[in-house]
Amino acid sequence: MVGILAYGAYLPRYRLERKTVAKAMAWINPAVWGLAGGEKTVAGADEDAITLAVAAARNACRFQRDAACEALFAASTTFPYAERQNAAMIREALSLPEEAAAVDVTGSTRAGTAAILAAAAQVAGGASKRAMVVVADARRTKMGSTEELLFGDGGAALVLGSEGVLAELVGTFSMSADFPGPLRENEKRLGRSWEERWVRDEGYVSLIPKAIHGYLSREKITADLFSALIYPCPYPREHGLIATKLGFSADKVADPMAALVGDTGAPHPLLMLCHVLESASPGDHILVVGYGSGVDVLHFRVTEAAASFKPAWSFDALLARKAPLTPYEKAAAFRELVPVETGLRGEFQAETPLSVQWRYRRAILGLEGSRCRRCGTPQFPPQRICAMGECQAVDEMEPYLFSDKPARIFSYTGDNLAFCLDPPQIYGIVDFDGGGRMMLDFTDCDLESLSVNQPVELHLRRKYHDGQRGVHTYFWKAVPIVSAQA
Amino acid sequence: MATGIKDKVAIIGMGCTRFGERWTDGAEDLMVEAFVEALQDAGIEKKEIDAAWLGTCFDEVNVGKSAIPLAQALKLPSIPVTRVENFCATGTEAFRGACYAVASGACRIALALGVEKLKDTGYGGLPGFDTAMGTLNRFILPNFTAPGGFALMATRYFAKYGISPEEGKMALAKISSKSHRCGALNPKAHLRKEVSPEQVLKAPIIAWPLGLFDCCGVSDGAAAAIVTTPDVARGLGKTPVMVKALQIAATSGEEMLTTRWDGTYLKTTTEAAKRAYAEAGITRPREELSVLEVHDCFSITELVTYEDLQISERGRAIRDINEGFFELDGKIPCQSDGGLKCFGHPIGASGIRMIYEVYNQLLHRAGPRQIPDPRLGLTHNLGGIPSFSVCSVGIFGL
C-alpha cells in the first residue's frame, strides 16, 4: 500500500503582525482592519519557494540525503522560474540521484495535493520505490489587499513509498473546476481577485463540501470515520461553515493556522497534515483537501509506524522559532515591491556565468566537496590537490557531502558595510564536524546571540537575484541553533 | 639554496603624492606627480630607466589594464613596462619586479610605480569583491567586505585569548590613536587629525567588533621608486638605501580549506617574515628592527602583525601596545608616517608609500617624525583577508 514514509514542515522565522500591515495600509483599504488579528509567517529576504521547499524536505529527511529516492515532485505557484526546472534545482540541493524523475507541479494552490497524487501514482505503478513531494509558496500580494493579510509563507514535504508507511493512502477523489478565484497572469508578479464574498461562497464553501461529499458517497463512508479533517480556507467564518455543511464535528477539524501562519497556498494542506501526523494515533483516518481550480481529496490511515518517525524540527518548534518582522516597509522590501536604496554594493552585479554554475552545480547547489583518500581531510570546494600541507596528494579525492554534516561557528561578524536587504550582513567561518571549513553567510539569527563554537545547521538560501538578467542564485548558509530542538 | 637579493639592489630615488580625496586629479596626474619627485630625487634622466613596473589593483575604475597607462602618462621611451596586481600587496609586487630586474643584471635602472584612484569608484571602503575572487567564489563566498573579513580575526583573537570585547576594543583603539598622532605630523597624509582612543571607541560599528576608526580610509595616491645596483648608486653620488629582503607569501588554501589554522594570526605574514629575516640575516627582530610600516588596513591587522613579525610574543601584543612599544617615541615605532590609517589605502600605491617612509627615515629626512638612529626598517602588506591572503615583507637598511 502506498503511503507516507516521512514528513516535514518548514516555516520561515519571520512573523508579521497583521496589525502592522493594517496600520500601514488601511488608509487605502479600511476593510483590512477586519482581518488584522494574529500574525503570519513571512519569507526572509533570502528565502523563496525553492529554499522553503528544500528546508521542508531536509526537515523530513532529518538533514540527511535520501539516496533511495527515485522521484521528486516539486509544487508551487511561486517558483522563481517559468522555464528552467525548479525541481531539478531542488533535486541538486537535496543530492538526490541524477536519474531521479524531477517534475514541476504548478498552476494552482491545489499543486501540493496534485503532486501527492502524481507521486503516489508513480510509486503505485512501480516506476519508483520512493518519491518525494516538496511544496512551498511565498506569494507576493498587492500592498493593501486582503491577501496581504491572509497569506503566509511556508513549505512542506512528504516522502512516499510502499514499505513501512506511517500513513497509508486509502483513497483519493479529484475534481477540477475553472473557478477563477485568485488569478495571476503569467507575465505578472502580482495577482488579483474577484469579489471576496463570491470567492468564499461559490469557491471554498461550495466546492470543498461538494468534493468531500463526492468521495464519501463514492466510498460509501461517513464523516464519522475521520479523526481529522484538513482543508484550507483563510476565512475563519467560512472555514467553520464548511465543516457544519458536511456534518463534521468542530473538534475534528484541523486548525487552519490562520492566526499564526496564514494561508500558505500550495503547501497549506500538507503543512496542516504534518502538524496532525505528529500527534496522530494508529488507526486514525485523516482526510486532506487541496483547493484551487478544483479540489483534491486524499484519505490517509495512520499505521503503527507513525510513532517511530519524527521530523528534525517539530511543527511546534517551528512555530516557536520566530522573530518579529518590523517595520512594515521591510516586508515590502523583502518582496521587491518597492525600490529601496541598496547603495553601490547592492546595485552592482556582475554577469552570472551559468556555465560555471553548471560545472560546479554539485558544489553550489548540493554543497558537495571532496575528501582526500590519502589523508582523509574533507575540503570545500572540491580540490584536485589536497590542501593539507604535508599530504598534497594529487587527484586522490572522492566526493564528500557537507550539507548533512553538523558544523560550528569558528568566527563571525555583523557587517554594516556589505549590502544586505536585512542588515547587518552576518557571516563567518564555520568548521564542520568530521573536518572541513567554509566561510559562509549566516541567516535567521541576531548578531547579539552569536558565539564562537555555537552549533549551526546548513540551509539553502537565495544568494542574490539579478533582476536585470533574470538569474536567481542559491547557496548554503549557516543557521545558528539558539534553542533546543523539539 | 637561493642566496636572496640582500644588498644587491639600492633605492636611489623615491616620490609620493599627497594622499587624499584628489577629486581634481586623475590617476595619470598622480603618476606624474610621484614620478617627477622620484626622478628629481634620483638625479637621473628618464632615458636611463631600462624598465618599469606599474602596480594597480582595480582596473575597472582606474587606469585600465596593461602597463600602457604608465608608459603613456610618463612618456616612457618604448621600454619594457609591466603591470602587476596582487591585491593589497600590489605596490610591493611592482617594487619586487623592479628589484629582481636589477638584481638579475637585466636592468641597470628600473622604476616601480603604484597608483590607485579609489575615490573614482564611488564606494565608501573598497569596491565589492564579487568579481575579484574568481567565478566559482562568486557563487559560494559571502558578499563580505574587507572590514568584515578582518573582523572575523578579531572575534577569534578575543575568544582564543579570553579577552573581553571592552579590553580588546580598547587595545585596538590605542593602535588607531597612535597612528593618528603620527599622521597629524605628516603633510602627505590624508587624515591629519589626532583621535583619542575614546573617540575611536565611540565611532559607529562597520563590522563587529571593528568601528569606523578601526578602518583605514579611502584615498587616492601614487608612489614611485627608482632602483639600481649599489655600484651605480655610489657612482651617482647617492647614499643608497639597500634592499635587505623582499618576500611574498600567498596562501596555499590550508587556512580556508582545513581546520588547522586557528584564525588569530596570518600564516602568510608569518612565513614571509621568516624568509625575509633569513634573507636579511636578522635573528632577533625585536632588537634589530628600528621602524615598522605594517599593513594596518584595520587595527586588528596591525595587532596580529606585531605577533606575526615576531616583535610581540603570540597573545602578548596588547601588553606591548599598553606599554607604548610601537609609539613614535617607543622602542620600535610603527606607522611613523600615519600608516594606512591616515594615508588611506590606494591599493597599488600603499606598498611603495610605506617604503617611501622607511627610505626617508633611513636618510633622516622625516622631519618632526624622525626616529633617532634608524638602522633597519620593515614594510609589510597584506592582500585579501586573513583566511585567504597574500603577504609581502620588505626590509631596508643603509
UniProtKB/TrEMBL annotation, chain A:
Residues 367-387 form the ChsH2 rubredoxin-like zinc ribbon domain. Residues 407-460 form the ChsH2 C-terminal OB-fold domain. GO terms for molecular function: acyltransferase activity. It comes from the Bacteria. Transmembrane segments: none annotated. Signal peptide: none annotated. InterPro entries: ChsH2_C (IPR002878), ChsH2_Znr (IPR022002), NA-bd_OB-fold (IPR012340), Thiolase-like (IPR016039). GO terms for biological process: secondary metabolite biosynthetic process. This is 3-hydroxy-3-methylglutaryl CoA synthase. The lineage of its organism: Bacteria, Pseudomonadati, Thermodesulfobacteriota, Syntrophobacteria, Syntrophobacterales.
Automatic annotation (TrEMBL), chain B:
Residues 9-199 form the Thiolase N-terminal domain. NCBIfam families: PRK06157.1. Keywords: Transferase. SUPFAM superfamilies: Thiolase-like. This is Acetyl-CoA C-acetyltransferase. Coiled coil: none annotated. Residues 254-392 form the Thiolase C-terminal domain. GO terms for molecular function: acetyl-CoA C-acyltransferase activity. It comes from Desulfosoma caldarium. It comes from the Bacteria. CDD domains: SCP-x_thiolase.
